[in-house]
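Input/output pair, single chain:
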Amino acid sequence: MMAGFGHTTRKHPRSRSRTRSRSGPDSATLGLIGVICAVAGFFVLGIILGPVAIVCGWLAMGRRWSGARVTPALIAVVLGVIDTILAIVWIAGAAGPGGMLF
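Output:
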């Protein structure tokens, strides 16, 4: 039997790794980017880098909170939350009475 256009003899792809798109970053890269943003956020621009770390960590965990978690992704989420809270407290304290921003 000969296969023509649109008529394949194979019903399923050979492997699952070939069916995924390779255009976006993988979870290990997103987890590492999240950790780097979280650590850098403790020193500069915590109000921006904290949420970036949270989003990168969440995307690295596969956009769900259950299941197998990658350690760098979980570290990125936790440090990002701490970083964001500290930045908000710092801004609120600087904006209060007698507080100086710099």
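The helical segments are 27-41, 46-60, 71-95. The first helix runs from residue 27 to 41.
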